[in-house]
Amino acid sequence: MKLVVGLGNPGKKYEGTRHNVGFEVVQTLAKRHAAPPPKSKFNGQLTEISVHGEKLLMLSPHTYMNKSGNSVRPAFDFYKLTLEDVLIVCDDFNLPLAKLRLKAKGSAGGQNGLADVIQKLGSNEVPRLRIGIGAPREGADVAGYVLSNFAKAEKPEMELCVEQAASAVEDWATQGLTYAMNQYNA
């Protein structure tokens, strides 16, 4: 059993924002695998799918981004998982638009949701899939940027990127992190 955590902010006003691409990846996987409706658990929405016989729990924390660890830690403990069995999917403004980057460990790189998960799990050795949302303009407000919607011209590229990210999660779950890194960290 593995746990995929898509980071984002709950509520209609955040749908489609750069900060919510983690939620979009989980939703894409749910549709692809005809997941049952999510249940409210662990301060979030939890559903389950099977990918080539591998059971995947998919969690979308509803704690708001900066408190994502308050959802991840209870699920991690309840299912008695190891860090290697968890994948955090989040946005990253340090990556070019639509670029994917899988890593086994590391710093939060300015991503506050990931930082909170790392802090609550007590380790930076949690696998993560970062999705590039492009950088804000020089001098722009970072918080405002990550909470903004994608420009019309960016949407087709990001829709394809979310599909690729969902495939990366499937490959992580069934083939392992190293395989997925080799496929998607171009």
From TrEMBL:
Sequence positions that bind tRNA: 14, 64, 66, 112
Top enzyme category: hydrolase
Principal subcellular localization: cytoplasm
Annotated site residue numbers, Discriminates between blocked and unblocked aminoacyl-tRNA: 9
Active site per the UniProt annotation: 19 (proton acceptor)
GO biological process, one term: rescue of stalled ribosome
Family from the record: Belongs to the PTH family.
Name the record gives this protein: Peptidyl-tRNA hydrolase
Organism of origin: Blastopirellula marina
Organism classification: Bacteria, Pseudomonadati, Planctomycetota, Planctomycetia, Pirellulales
